[in-house]
């Protein structure tokens, strides 16, 4: 083959083979285009956390984005999909890992932060709360129940004035059952020196209406309470207001005459 033919092939190649040295084109980088003084870390240092938007706060946790998506865009996408920043407290690690740029470790870190947020909401400073009605019990347990996809059963130990001594999770079950035996319930009460207890569990479906098993468990707890002389104040089932036919989000078996 002559040199002229070789030159012809090279010429054709210039039209057909892409230039591999040209940088790939990705969407605009919001962080890169943001002035340094307006970036989340700088704003946090200068103005404090209250000045940051939800997206900026989440970006501080994420720390980095991924190729083709900066950290601000990634944070914005997560919040948009969850519906709100609080909606992220309902996510499991698999929900975070569906997004490019979030691996196993980062997903677990995010789930940990969300769990810390829920526990902070649950813990109260000052005097122990007074829990003597189903609505107060539902409010007290709301952070615990948030985002649960399985049933859990709690024993709330109270002193003689119905103030909280301790709240213990005694069983964790499936999406449809987490019934507790009286021995687990009253073992916790005796350990706490309780004068009275409230038993409570959640319904992941959101509908707090009791099942036949819930009613049977309540009757067993009522009989055991009489034997041990520890007052069973109530058994409360926690659901969600939107799924409750009565629009309360909880059901009191004491109000139903079963305690």
How would the blueprint of this fold be written?
Layout: H1 3-16, H2 30-33, H3 40-47, H4 54-62, H5 71-82, H6 93-97, H7 104-122, H8 134-145, E1 152-158, E2 164-172, H9 182-192, E3 196-202, H10 212-228, E4 231-238, E5 250-252
Parallel strand pairs: 3-4
Antiparallel strand pairs: 1-2, 1-3, 4-5
Helix pairs in contact: 4-5, 7-8
List the defining traits of the structure above.
2 domains, alpha+beta, Cytidine Deaminase, domain 2, 5 strands, 5-stranded mixed sheet, 259 residues
Commentary on this structure:
The protein has 259 residues and is an alpha+beta fold. It folds into 2 domains: 27-121; 134-252, Cytidine Deaminase, domain 2, CATH 3.40.140.10. Helix content is 43%, strand content 13%. The chain is built from 10 helices and 5 strands. The chain has a 5-stranded mixed beta sheet, with helices on both faces. Helix 10 (212-228) links the parallel strand 3 and strand 4. Helix 7 (104-122) runs antiparallel to helix 8. The longest helix is centred in the middle third of the chain and has 19 residues, at 104-122. The protein is elongated and about 70 Å long.
Beta-strand proportion: 5-15%
End-to-end gap: 100 Å
- Specify the structural class: alpha+beta
Within the CATH hierarchy, at the fold level, what is the topology of the largest domain? Cytidine Deaminase, domain 2
Give a short synopsis of this structure:
With 259 residues, the chain is α+β, with helices and mostly antiparallel strands. The protein is 43% helix and 13% strand. It folds into two domains: 95 residues; 119 residues, Cytidine Deaminase, domain 2.
